[in-house]
Amino acid sequence: GCEFYKYFASHLPLILRPGGKIVWEISPYIQKPVCQALQEKGWTDITVQQDYSGLDRMVVATCPSSVESV
Q1: Is a pLDDT exceeding 70 seen at residue 18?
Q2: Which residues have C-beta within 8 Å of that of residue 34, sequence separation ≥ 6?
Q3: CA atoms within 13 A on the CB side of 52
Q4: Could you tell me which of 45, 47, 42, 37 has the C-alpha nearest to residue 62?
Q5: Any residues with CB less than 8 A from the CB of 35 and at least 6 apart, and which?
Q6: Most exposed: 3, 13, 27, 37, by fewest CB within 10 Å?
Q7: Which secondary-structure segment (H or E) carries 34?
Q8: What Rg value do the Cα atoms of the chain yield, rounded?
Q9: Treating both helix axes as pointing N-terminal to C-terminal, what angle do 31-40 and 3-11 enclose, rounded to 10 degrees?
């Protein structure tokens, strides 16, 4: 599942600068829970990019400016 993405949604703000970006390649079947995990941890500008087959494949998000405790 999505445990990898939930872990990094919580921990990456500790090492990234506010406003920094992440770009994750995802399975098209987990787009919604990955985006939800990012949103719950304060990530912004969350977008999903499709591959050439039209499947949701990449999630791009901006690091939050404040870090919640992990």
Answers
A1: yes
A2: 2, 5, 24, 26, 59
A3: 0
A4: 45
A5: 46, 48, 59
A6: 3
A7: helix 31-40
A8: 12
A9: 20
